[in-house]
Design brief:
Elements: H1 3-9, E1 13-24, E2 29-37, H2 39-44, E3 52-55, E4 84-87, E5 90-94, E6 97-105, H3 109-114, E7 122-129, E8 141-147, H4 151-164, E9 169-176, H5 190-194, H6 200-203, E10 208-213, E11 220-221, H7 224-234, E12 242-247, H8 250-263, E13 266-270, E14 286-290, E15 297-301, E16 308-310
Parallel strand pairs: 8-9, 8-12, 9-10, 10-11, 12-13
Antiparallel strand pairs: 1-2, 1-7, 2-6, 3-4, 3-7, 5-6, 13-16, 14-15
Length: 316
Amino acid sequence: MTIMEEQITQQKGRFEAKVTFHKKLNERFYRLGLLLEGPGASAFEKTIPGQFAQFDVSNMATPSPETIPQDLKDVSTRQVILRRPFSFARVIKEANKTAVEIIYQVLGPGTLRMMTLAKGDTVSVIGPLGRGFTVPQGKKLALLVAGGMGFPPLEHLTQFLTTHYRETEPIAFVGAKSRFDMPFEKQLDEISRELEFSIAEFGRYVVRSFLATDDGSAGFKGTVIDCLLDWFTRNNPEPAQVVIYACGPQPMLARIAQIAAEKQIDCQVSMEEMMACGIGLCQSCVVKCRAQTPGQTIYKLCCKDGPVFDAKDIAF
């Protein structure tokens, strides 16, 4: 069965997940571990990188006032009704249980409430949802490009590739405005960076990785696009043997798609449209795509047709 066939036949549903750990990575970033048992474990053990789940945050408590960031104090008491979508950074099968990890950034009243989660708490999740990444045949090199909070599904993809597609070597490129905007537990030492192992989350899979910051406070000085292009000037891979996977802000994805087209490299992008229901009912997460007729466009749903799309199909 192919990866796409597995996605089509996957069992989806609403399940309860138990919090196993909750780590603060820096001022705004957290890493959350969850454990699913029974039917939930069976459903999520086959999660494809790039897929996501909808988290119910409506019943979570509001953090104590002194822990709320100043810019979120006005919205901290706002009622939260809709679930919040999160992709996965890791998925680990443990006997008859499945452990999943997500990374989130505190940006509004929903993620603000998630700060209060503690070990042993339960979270209602719906999933796994959407279509994830696929691995075309004959690819020897996978370039993973993340901007901002596009990092988690590419960490999961790294885990997936090194487990199921060992003939395909992943190389990760991650960018942010500064070192304070990166959702990592730590950076590796100078010797590791010289060996092109900059990020511990990729280093655990023995995968090369590069950091890029706009202000030069960590790694390469410049955008992640600049870092990727710099890598291409120092390497000359065979286009037919390369696939690019990207997740991040839309302007970054548009530029990645352009580079891939110019170099005739296959490219898949994970779109970050706002998803209200996550199951295609509300029709709010539309993505403008190219139609088969030249010059015409159609709209697809990020939550059902994506969030991962072939870059050639998106009308950026």
